[in-house]
Specification:
single chain; mainly beta; four-stranded antiparallel β-sheet; three-stranded antiparallel β-sheet; 1 helix; binds zinc ion
């Protein structure tokens, strides 16, 4: 039987027993060491959208992250607050090109999350 630990900050499960979350760096014992802060509000969205798909991607020239979840994408700032969120049903492919990102051939503005 495998033992999964779920990160209290970013909700990513890991089956090994590391001290720190491999995605956000949070120490499982004392909660320190966060590289990426996730607010309560963002955590709820991440949970609803099936969890983080890949490690959050820092947006060039900012301290914000693009968080790719199984069924949507959101942008959070360094405090973990949501700047925008875009529900997309399934996101199995995402590319970032400076000022926009593409999901399955559809382009979205990285500043607003709106379709372009
Ligand atoms: Zn984490």
């Amino acid at each position: 039987m495998k033992n999964y630990i779920e990160c209290k900050n970013c909700l990513v499960p890991t089956e090994n027993s590391p001290v720190n979350c491999p995605v956000c760096g949070t120490n499982y014992n004392d909660g320190t060491g966060k590289r990426i802060h996730v607010s309560e509000e963002a955590r709820e969205v991440i949970y609803d959208w099936g969890g983080i798909y890949v490690e959050p991607i820092i947006i060039e020239g900012t301290t914000d992250y693009l968080v790719w979840c199984e069924s949507g994408v959101l942008r959070i700032n360094s405090e973990g607050e949501i700047l925008w969120k875009k529900f997309l049903a399934t996101v199995s492919n995402l590319e970032i090109n400076r000022d926009h990102f593409s999901v399955h051939g559809r382009n979205f503005d990285i500043e607003s999350g709106e379709s372009i």
